[in-house]
Amino acid sequence: MRPHLSVVALLSPLLVHAFELPANLQSPLDSLKHGLGSLRDGANLDSLYHNFDALRQKLEMPAFVKQFTDPVGASPLLSLHRDLVRIESITGNENAVGTWLVEYLTKRNFTVEMQPVFGEKAKDKVAARGGKVSVASDRFNILAYIGKNRTTRTLVSSHLDVVPPYWPYEVHGQKISGRGTVDAKGSMATQIRAVEELWENSEIGEGDVAMLFVVGEETGGDGMVVANNLGLSWETVIFGEPTELKLASGHKGILSFTVNAQGKAAHSGYPDLGINANSLLLPALVALDNLVLPSSKTLGDSTLNIGLIEGGVAANVIPAFAQARGMVRIAAGSPEEVKDTIVQAVNRTGVEGVKLEFGAECYGPVHIDSDVEGFETIPVSYGTDIPHLHGDHKRYLYGPGSILVAHSDHEGLTVQDLQDAVRGYKKLVREALNPSGGKGVVVVEDVGGEGDRVEGEVEKEKDKVEGEQEEEVRVVEGEVITEEL
Ligand SMILES: [Zn+2]
């Protein structure tokens, strides 16, 4: 937006005199005057820009002026998206964006519940303040719905948190970038606007749709796990994550592991006196790195990543301890089967002093419904909150932007992506409330060619895995897929 600076500088005094200013604008206004003075001295353009930006955010301009000075602010969708992205919300620090969103949704006449995620203590604190949260460390999920009925047929849901590091919102022409613009504030903003528009057009009312925005999705889903205590269930849940505006047909499961090697410290000149833990660890890591894990035609290969290795204290000391941590993205088979394969591979090395541990949070490949006409489908490789929300609801995964840029230093999407996503979510909500496909319709892409529609109660289908090995696939609506080898 900086190219408009000269226009802004010219217009500012006019705008300021044209409107009656509330008292709280005095401070940024003073800063602005100061900034304009500095400009004459050739000083800091950046601070001038930020001063004007602060003023602009507080000033309610007529629509035609806003369209000219702040096209993003003139759009309910783009301004909501910008406001969400501007508030940093790296996992654990979701309070500010949550508090802002509670206010936004309340102003728009939604009934809003805040569900503490730090347990009873935080809950008491919230109650003691009459429902208002002001302590920065407080974390809470947000449930919003129309009217008094918190029980709704459909839920749309996404997450408030983003991955580090934070970098600010920017817009250049049609391109919008910044941390969270895609994952998942693009989904949040477009879900909210979709529900607002459907309500404005009287297409939905009380009891139809609720919105759930959770904390902690990026680090294990603690927010969604707590959301199970809301005491609610739904016919359909529409999850918002970047899917390039396609309906995800499934995503891989996860299993994390740690390999510990216990040796004995000694002087490196006398290796016979010690046991080198790094040397113990290496054969296990080579075995795991070369491991062939099950694949499926829908989700591709299971992949194993050795992500962290540490061992030893100095070059001249025989290391007493070494450790490696990794994660498997499971495309086929259960976490238990993958665990067995890993244990056997490490055992086959015949090295003693090596121990395996597995992370408590693990799940197999996740089946996602993708039976809505007019959407392309896509399998995805990342984890989501879908397996953390219990229940036998139908589930969709959809959102603007690509996962390929989501956690990167060039996260961004286009204005068109956001506008299309609002239309997409509205379509999905309509489908959820008035299903056209009928119960039991599941697209099983692996059977008889791409995207074949299988009518009726689909219970079992044959799926050929790579290497011509036969695999039984049990497709059950609303449950984690189980593929037995
Ligand atoms: Zn996400």
TrEMBL record:
One of its GO terms (molecular function) is metal ion binding. Its cofactor is Zn(2+). Gene3D superfamilies: 3.30.70.360, Zn peptidases (3.40.630.10). Coiled coil: none annotated. Residues 1-18 form the signal peptide. It comes from the Eukaryota. PROSITE patterns: ARGE_DAPE_CPG2_2. Keywords: Hydrolase, Metal-binding, Signal, Zinc. The keyword Nucleotide-binding does not apply. Residues 450-474 are annotated as: Disordered. Residues 250-352 form the Peptidase M20 dimerisation domain. Belongs to the peptidase M20A family. This is Peptidase M20 dimerisation domain-containing protein. The lineage of its organism: Eukaryota, Fungi, Dikarya, Ascomycota, Pezizomycotina.
